[in-house]
What does this fold into?
Amino acid sequence: MPKLYGSVEAGGTKFVCAVGDENFQVVEKVQFPTTTPSETIKKTVEFFQRFEADLAGVAIGSFGPIDIDQNSKTYGYITKTPKPHWSNVNLVGEISKHFKVPFYFTTDVNSSAYGESLVRKGVENLVYYTIGTGIGAGAIQRGEFIGGTGHTEAGHTYVALHPQDVAHEFNGTCPFHNGCLEGLAAGPSLEARTGIRGELIEQNSDVWDVQAYYIAQAAVQATLLYRPQVIVFGGGVMAQEHMLKRVREKFDSLMNGYLPTPDASEYIVIPAIVENGSATYGNFALAKKVSER
It folds into this structure.
């Protein structure tokens, strides 16, 4: 019988569960809102139980922070998260106890970064950012994840305030930090500044330039820290074509020719895998990897 690989993209807004074949093509996929841990995990388990006979491995890419240290007592947990009811939830343990297959656990952005690196020919060094309800990033160096005692939290790096935010004394929406990237550039920051949901704001609004200023700083940070071949920006905020152009222009201005980088049109891009499928594809590959150990 052909093997199937499982993917759980555990997002703060929704869970996307899928099974794929040995070519990483989706056999079946389902999504549902992220409600309480018990209800959401129950739906996840029920989905995979339908494919249990052919399932070879499962990879979970989760919102965080999470514990990925396999020597830790809380390995597999979502730890201290602002998502209500989800702090200290044993996500891997509660799902894996129903199955006799190996599980791989990482962040949702790591899963996306891995998927993007696999489909981009000749790319071994890549950084993937999700700019949506929150901000996270995964970095791949020579095919491996960046991280030591835990995963990176690039969404909570501090950035220089835009003059407009300085004038209005706006320090972001993050409950943990004043002036971090997520608090200043994630989707909720748009409504916090304007009182209007992001998707309803006119394209000619100055607020998009403010947001692009912060996202471009993220691209500068990624360039200086990791020297990637490409930086991929996914998530709902970057789905708007005008945003990509703004970020590229501000990146060129902020970098100011300090380091050689490819042309911004080739260096700062949106996902190659359509419909936000990068994490699913990456998870299939990680599920296969863990099944073969």
About this structure: Residues 77 and 91 are 5 Å apart (CA to CA).
